[in-house]
Amino acid sequence: MKDVSANLRPTRRIDRRSAGVAPVTGADVYEAALTAFADRGYFGTSLKDIANAVGLQAPSLYNHISSKADLLSEIVLDTLSTVFADFEAAVAAHDNPVDQLREATYVYALHHATHRRETMVVNQDARHLEGKSLEQAQDMRRTHERDFRRLIADGIKDGYFQHPSPKLASFAIREMCVSVARWFHDQGDLKPEDVARTYASQALRVVGVTP
Amino acid sequence: MKDVSANLRPTRRIDRRSAGVAPVTGADVYEAALTAFADRGYFGTSLKDIANAVGLQAPSLYNHISSKADLLSEIVLDTLSTVFADFEAAVAAHDNPVDQLREATYVYALHHATHRRETMVVNQDARHLEGKSLEQAQDMRRTHERDFRRLIADGIKDGYFQHPSPKLASFAIREMCVSVARWFHDQGDLKPEDVARTYASQALRVVGVTP
DNA sequence: CCTACCGATCGGTAGG
DNA sequence: CCTACCGATCGGTAGG
């Protein structure tokens, strides 16, 4: 079917230079990329998609970014370093494995509820990074995995936890937190803190600790 | 740097019609697509990638498939229907929530260990389906989610399980199983059955059941 | 911040 | 199963 109205009211493309519109910032672009990457994935998102979301033409994005890949690596590396810092702070704040695991799980689950888009992009698109960004991301992820597993292994060795496999317990606990980003919605009945608290006690149950 | 050898030994493109090579089957294409989609995602995989993996030129794929989207929907719908059938069989095989949840978790975790590529594609690329395939996939997933959660809710109501939220318990248990596909490798020390057994008992711990 | 444009690649078709 | 080819779209550059 032909859209006749297109002839009468042709799409007017606004030129932001001459319109009285506030200029777009780098933060705006970052935000739009976050939403688009989380929704449709890195390869499912074109620069045109991002540009249109902030009201620009695609080439204008290059006033704010240096490349599409760079946008992805910013999101991924920012997020991973925050997550790891949260983990370290949680462990440092306590002196026994039970409280350390409870707190580490709490902040991890919480971050996935409060930063859904960022964590989804990390988990689905970090593998599409290349070169040094990819290495940095892999390093941070591996360190977090290693330290999380060590916390559990030590807790088992010292008799705080009961579990046949620190490896499986660690994967199970971390991944159930990661998945919060997939289903959590702010409009629901649950607040991020509620979810985080419940996940922390689920983590303790997984390693055999009951209150 | 110029690759001089390219001039001396130009890439010979084999024409499978005249070479003494067994013809490619639809199953070969399905296999190659599975590996490629799981590794790099649906939009990160081109038909040329899949064709080259089975030794064909890209247009020749159309002797085996009707479109790229159709290849994805086959993988996703096949996998989801198997997973749901496994769940129903597990529940039907037992008459109490504890055994039902143990068995349902066991088969779910097992499937993610033994069909890593299929389940990864479902979890990362099902959202890229369109039209009727997308609806079918969403329907099957929702039904599985609903029935899994109902199993847990009934178990709580009847006093078999202790947990403040069937919704959170259900998400946690299902998603920790889903993530098995991400880290499990056949060459490791653990067999799929070992992982599934451990995950089944983790699930029971999450809902407050200790042996 | 825009328009105009670049080479590369995409999924897919025609024809043999 | 191939070669030749299609229009569309991709990330990105030039120039103002």
Key features of this structure:
homodimer, 211 residues, mainly alpha, disordered N terminus, DNA-binding
Describe the fold and architecture.
By secondary structure, chain A is mostly helical. Chain A contains 10 helices and no strands. In chain A, α2 (26-40) packs across α6. Chain A is elongated. The termini of chain A are far apart. Mean pLDDT of chain A is 93; it is low at 1-11. At the A-B interface, α8, α9 and α10 of A face α8, α9 and α10 of B. Chain A binds a DNA duplex (16 and 16 nucleotides) through loops.
Structural class category of chain A:
mainly alpha
Rg of chain A is: 22 Å
In one word, what is the shape of chain A? elongated
Strand portion of chain A, in percent? under 5%
The poorly predicted ranges of chain A are 1-11
Looking at the chains present, what oligomeric state does this protein adopt?
A: homodimer
Largest interface, counted by CB within 8 Å of the partner chain's CB: A-B, 30 and 30 residues
Helix content of chain A: 55-70%
SSE topology:
The structure is a homodimer of 211-residue chains.
Chain A: H1 5-8, H2 26-40, H3 47-53, H4 68-92, H5 97-114, H6 116-125, H7 131-157, H8 166-178, H9 180-183, H10 192-206
Helix pairs in contact in A: 2-3, 2-6, 4-5, 4-6, 4-7, 5-6, 5-7, 5-8, 5-10, 7-8, 8-10
Chain A binds a DNA duplex (16 and 16 nucleotides) through loops.
Question: Could you give a short description of this structure?
Answer:
Two copies of one chain form a homodimer. Chain A is mostly helical.
